[in-house]
Amino acid sequence: MQICKTPADLKVLNAQNIGFVPTMGALHAGHLSLIERAKAENAFVVVSIFVNPTQFGMNEDFSQYPRPLEKDLDLCAKAGVNAVFTPQVQTLYPFKEAISLNPPKDLLGFEADLRPGHFSGVLQVVLKLFNLVRPTKAYFGQKDAQQLLILQRMANDLFLPVEVIACPTLRDSDGLALSSRNTYLSPEQRELALKIPKALNTIKEAYETGITQGTNLLALGQEVLSPLEVQYLALVNRQLQPLERVEPNNSLILTAIKVGTTRLLDNLWL
Ligand code: PAF
To answer: Of 125, 173, 224, 257, which is most buried, counting CB atoms within 10 Å of its CB?
Structure first.
């Protein structure tokens, strides 16, 4: 496995049909499932590991974010990754002021309201990474549904020569969606966090018995989530517009929950 630190290191790879998995490291089984899919569909797989400062707000966890680089490299090597790109901040942001990108208005709300500037940072770094890695396909988890929709829009709107591929959320055996931030939870908080998948399951089961009205479905979820701090729990279509009723195969229940100081995202695709 090649370790690339600079754009020049990436250039000499001289690879074609690249499947790309951008990450911030602290890899877990969710990332490994993206890598596996990329391996199945591409001749050459590149993973980037970069904790991107521009997508963190002032009071967020940038400095605390886990950075187990050696372990991550080991996991990538074992997963059969061809090259890992681990740039320094100065390499990706050579200028004091960087060009910025904004998500389109129709994909705002939710995370964009709670984390001002977050998606501009995500767009900025992912566009830089796409330009450096030049992948044919790039793989993102459905857990970060809004990020995924915004990145798909960027690829389409800017005619980027890359296909942005959505991959299903992986869960621990207790149902909690895998996230690098789960490591922040104490055992008691983790127990409380299980209310999130339980609430989504309750909604799914209710939908399967024929309830389609958003207010009814969301009320059932809210009940399960109590007393956790629900930052949002909403029914939207897959263009992120609010829905009154579930539209089959075009709906999403989005939620962000605070457990202690940790924010956890989850969602249900209906
Ligand atoms: O989802 C993530 O881990 C990050 O937002 C990404 C896409 C790697 C950009 O830094």
So the answer is: 125
- Determine whether 118 is an active site residue: no
142 lines ligand 1 (CB under 6 A): no
**pLDDT (tens digit, 9 = 90+) per residue, 75-94?**
999 999 999 999 999 999 99
Residue 142 lies in a domain: yes
> Looking at 112, 142, 167, which one is the last position of a domain?
167
Stated pTM of the model: 0.97
Burial bucket for residue 19 (CB in 10 Å: 0-12, 13-18, 19+): buried
Apex CA 200: angle with CA 199 and CA 201, to 5°? 90
Whether residues 92 and 185 fall in one domain: no
Low-confidence spans in the chain with pLDDT less than 70: none
H/E segment holding residue 46: strand 44-49
Contact between 266 and 171 (Cβ < 8 Å): no
Alpha helices in the chain (DSSP H): 7-11, 29-41, 69-78, 89-92, 111-114, 118-133, 145-157, 187-193, 195-208, 214-225
Task: Give the range of the structural domain holding residue 34, as residue numbers without chain letter.
Answer: 2-167
Domain-embedded: residue 150? yes
110 alpha carbon to ligand 1 midpoint, in Å? 17
Sheet containing 137-141: give its strands across: 2-4, 83-85, 44-49, 18-23, 137-141, 163-167
126 lines ligand 1 (CB under 6 A): yes
- Confidence (pLDDT) at 242: 97
Ligand 1 nearest atom to the CA of residue 52, by list position:
10
Confirm or reject: Cβ of 51 under 6 Å from ligand 1.
no
Tokens of 140: 């993102």
